[in-house]
# Entry
Amino acid sequence: MNSIDLTTEFACPPERLFAVLTDFSQLPRWRQVEAFRQDPPTGPPAIGMRIYTTVEAMGRPMEFGQQIDVLDPIDLTYQDHGIEGMFLIQNRWQIEVNNGATHLHWTTELDATSLPSFVMGFVLAAIQKSQRADMARLQAVVEEGL
# Structure
C-alpha cells in the first residue's frame, strides 16, 4: 500500500472544518472533481454511505468509489475505503487542535497493484499535487466569512 500524508493548519474552529469536510454537497467546491454522487442520493453522511467521484486523470475521466467506515464528529475523524476504480483509494481525515490552531491530517492510501510499478511514482506525485491544491481550496471555503 502506498500512502500520501498531508497536514495543514486552518484558521477556524475544528467543528467547522469537520462540518465542511463531511458535507459532501460541498465537495465540488474544494476537490478537483468533474462529477460527484452519493448513495443514498440524499440525507446526511453516515457510515456505509458510498461516495463516487469522477476526476480527470491521465488524459481521461476516472471514477472512484469509497464507502464511509468512520464518521465521528466527537473525535473529529473520518475514514473510508475504496470500493471502485482503476485502483482503490482510501482516505482518513483527523482534525486536531494544537496550541489553539486547528490542523487537518489527511492520509490517502492507494492499492495500485493493478498498475505497472513504473507508473506508481507518477500516480502518487499527481495525486499529491492535486491534494495540495485541494487543501488550499478547502482553506478558502472553510475560512470564508470568518
Observations:
- The helical segments are 14-21, 27-30, 117-143.
- The beta strands are 2-10, 35-39, 50-57, 60-72, 77-84, 88-98, 101-111.
- The first helix runs from residue 14 to 21.
- The chain has three helices and seven strands.
